[in-house]
Design goal:
Layout: E1 2-7, E2 11-18, E3 21-32, E4 35-45, H1 50-74
Antiparallel strand pairs: 1-2, 2-3, 3-4
Length: 76
Amino acid sequence: MRTVQSEAPLLWVEEGRCGPARARLALAFSPCPGGTRVVAEFDVHALGLGWLVTVLSRPAIGADLRRAARVLAAAR
């Protein structure tokens, strides 16, 4: 994955390729009471199975984002 768009502090977009598969992760940040709200959009395009990889990857992506939130919160 490589960063293709960065509009601090509002948006971060990464894209990557592995053979015929392409993935995209976009994180949109907005202030909220007590911190920052992050909305993630993730999708994979791959020879007819991209939708399945996207669905199956969502729990892992969510876990990674929650872990990052805990690390950042602990660093405050």
